[in-house]
Amino acid sequence: MFSCGTAKNKLKILVLGGTYFVGPAIVNAALRNDHAVTLFNRGITNPELFSGIRLIKGDREKGLAAYAPLKKEQWDVVIDVWPEKSKLVDEATTALMNHTKHYVFISSIAVYNSFQHPGLNEESEVVDLTLNPNEWEYPEEKLAAELFVKKRFQDNHTILRAGPIKGWRDPAVDLLYWCVKLNREESILAPGSGLDHLQFIDVNDVGRFAIQASAERIFGIYNCTGPKKEALLWKDFLEGAKQQFNSSSQLIWANEEFLATNKISSFTDLPLWVPLSEDGFMQISHEKLLQTGFAFTPINKTLDDCMRWFTSSMDDHLKFGTEEVGLGLDRTKELELMEKLQG
Q: In terms of CB atoms within 10 Å, which end of the chain has fewer, N or C?
């Protein structure tokens, strides 16, 4: 783990947002390293968080004029966690280009053009922006936002291309699906051969690297995905999680052909699983990140945080694969599939 920030290099950091999911992890990392943090948001999302931190209220949806209060000051670093709408990043970078020494943007591995081959790195081909902007989806919006950041902060930008971000405050239930199932069911349908790859990154790792990059002036684009230095296979993940939760659940493995025949979809029916035949998405290179000396949060800590967040903020009787939660397999369907496999 790194530590950055002393009385000698205390940074004046402006976080755009800061109170939803990734934002709090960034703020907490900055505070742990004694930086001076100011938040810029509407004061609506989780307003109870960080009540002792300076807040400048503003709404990015209102255009360039919203940034007027921020232009009265100079910042060492601006950290932008905006998840979509490149137009807002265009406006933020325009407004603040002469008011900060460094712009950090949280992007996504979704910007890559194809995931058919493993080992995508920061130089790999990205999506095409020649489409009509009205047809852009999440990948195109993220890439367009990256380009605005690079245009206005050519030599002093850091772009974090994150994989699936998991952990404390995670609004998704994909990694949580597996944690809950192992704590709840006597048997579960496990995806693929067990040799498929799995990648995600702890939200606190995203926060820590954003602050590390700020303090150490680490510029450029970095793939940010884990959850560890070495590859993680599904067999090792589920067996490790079973041990962690002291689960007696039996894992019933279903290969890719069986799942395709039974019209079971990756990611939706089996959250976070990508079949080995199209596994580039779960084998993104993070070598450049590792070269900075970065160390990942232990997987068991991420899983514990997922379960703690679940018990503190969600319905314990959550039903996956239903109208209530579209993600995952309905238990009746899952039992039918396991019966087929064992019959």
A: C
Q: List pLDDT tens digits, range 307-329.
A: 999 999 998 888 999 988 999 99
Give the Cα separation of 36 and 10 in Å (integer). 7
- Does residue 86 have a pLDDT over 50? yes
Alpha helices in the chain (DSSP H): 22-32, 86-96, 138-152, 174-184, 203-216, 234-244, 256-261, 287-290, 299-313, 331-342
- The CA distances from residue 59 to 39, 66, 68, in Å, are 12, 6, 11
230-288 pLDDT tens trace = 999 999 999 999 999 999 999 999 999 999 999 999 999 999 999 877 778 999 999 99
User: Tokens 């232990």 appear where?
Assistant: 298
Q: 157 — alpha (psi -120 to 50), left (phi > 0) or beta?
A: beta
Report the distance separating Cα 129 and Cα 224, nearest Å: 23
Residues 6+ apart with CB under 8 A from 109: 120, 161, 162, 163, 223, 225, 281, 284
pLDDT in tens, 278-311: 778 999 999 999 999 999 999 999 999 999 999 9
Cα-Cα-Cα-Cα dihedral of 287, 289, 290, 293, to 10°? 160
Please check whether residues 266 and 148 belong to one and the same domain: no
Joined tokens for residue 78:
């601006």
The encoded tokens of residue 140 equal: 């195109």
Average pLDDT of the residues of the chain: 94
Same domain assignment for residues 234 and 325? yes
How many other C-beta atoms lie within 10 A of the C-beta of residue 213? 24
Residue-number span of the structural domain to which 323 is assigned: 174-197+230-277+298-342
Q: How far apart are CA 97 and CA 117, in angstroms?
A: 37
- What's the CA gap between 67 and 96, in Å, rounded? 8
Assigned token pair, 175: 């990694």
Number of structural domains found in the chain: 2
Token duo for residue 154: 């050519």
| Domain edge (last residue) among 186, 208, 224 | 224
Query: pTM of the prediction?
Result: 0.95
